[in-house]
Hints:
By secondary structure, the protein is an alpha/beta fold.
Amino acid sequence: xLIFFLRNYLNSLALFNPKKAGKQAYKIFSRPRKGRLAAExxxxxxxxxxxxxxxxxxFTIQTYFWAGEKPTILLAHGWESxxxxxxxxxxxxxxxxxxxxxxxxxxxxxxxxxSFNPKLYAEMLNQVVLKFAPVGFVGHSVGSYTxxxxxxxxxxxxxxxxxxxxxxxxxxTSDNRDIFNKYFHILGLNKxxxxxxxxxxxxxxxxxxxxxxxxxFVKNFKEKALIIHDKDDDVAPYSGSENIH
Length: 245
């Protein structure tokens, strides 16, 4: 019923006010339906040695830190998730005595913001990198994409991170248009709405989705990376990993 309403509303709105239709579509796509912390998530995250908030341009970034004897590994979760999703990874890394820092993405977990976008995620991640100086980066889905975005746009201005460092990219997205097109298909949005969405996106961020494709980012990367992706992934296409590799 909700999908039917949104489809008719946005497709009809685009006939008379395409700019507003594009903005409304963006709001729908950028607001996660889940990802805030449940009680069981909090129980695990309370095992962190430190739970700290990092301030950034009016936002608060929630971080969790586990102390160890080895260098720091940073964990960046994906869409509609939070730092508790790393529980098994954290248990393994702690057994190996690594230091660990995880952050909640914007509009996820206990990090503020009423909407999500990878650019803001990368900016927040950069603040966490400046504070904790990790040598390893692990991401999932859009978290993996955000790590590549950060590496492309922020690494050279982040003196606290020196090479060599490494990435582990789980189910990375490469071209966000693949994700957008999936939402367009699910909602049944026509080309008029789709074009308005992309126009609003470019006006808001100053670049188009076509100009921030991860497979283009990695062409100049010198860091080692391990890419892990299920060939049958029906959310983040396996082709994204093929393009990055």
